[in-house]
Amino acid sequence: MTTTTTPAAEKRPTLTRSAMTLIFALMLVGGALRSVEAGCQNTLKLALKDVWLCGVISYAVALIGVGAILVASLMVSRRRVWPARADLAAMPKWAPFGGLTGGAAIFAMITVASSVGVGTFNALIIAGQMFVAAAMDHFGVLGFPRRRINARRVAACAMIIVGSYLMAKY
């Protein structure tokens, strides 16, 4: 990994083409799994007839899954670096609350995806993500490096909105 200097003299890592290809492939798989997740959530909601219980079960299963991955990684990894007290004290107080935003997204998925269809749901979720992400990048907030908005990024957001409209309409 090498670093490049941006006009604002910020240092950001650059990745090799093969690393970027792998990362993009993993992101595509992750995105595909979100559609499968919507189907699982909808099926669970229909079976349980309760959106709240569906959300609790979904998060419980996710917690068990993440725990199992943690245990497996600890068993095969020689690197066992845990945060020190100073690391935890220096962490912003809002940092652990990302799970709540994930919970809100899952609740939205459980309650509305079946009404609008998984394609439209995902298209609008992605549109919302892109607008907030563009603003976060532009201002460099929540620990992300600053990446100023430009005409290409605005055009990309506009194309996502057009795609969302087309998914909803057809």
UniProtKB/TrEMBL annotation:
<feature type="transmembrane region" description="Helical">
    <location>
        <begin position="151"/>
        <end position="168"/>
    </location>
</feature>
<feature type="transmembrane region" description="Helical">
    <location>
        <begin position="123"/>
        <end position="144"/>
    </location>
</feature>
<protein>
    <submittedName>
        <fullName>DMT family transporter</fullName>
    </submittedName>
</protein>
<keyword id="KW-1133">Transmembrane helix</keyword>
<feature type="transmembrane region" description="Helical">
    <location>
        <begin position="57"/>
        <end position="76"/>
    </location>
</feature>
<dbReference type="InterPro" id="IPR006750">
    <property type="entry name" value="YdcZ"/>
</dbReference>
<dbReference type="Pfam" id="PF04657">
    <property type="entry name" value="DMT_YdcZ"/>
</dbReference>
<feature type="transmembrane region" description="Helical">
    <location>
        <begin position="97"/>
        <end position="117"/>
    </location>
</feature>
<keyword id="KW-0472">Membrane</keyword>
<keyword id="KW-0812">Transmembrane</keyword>
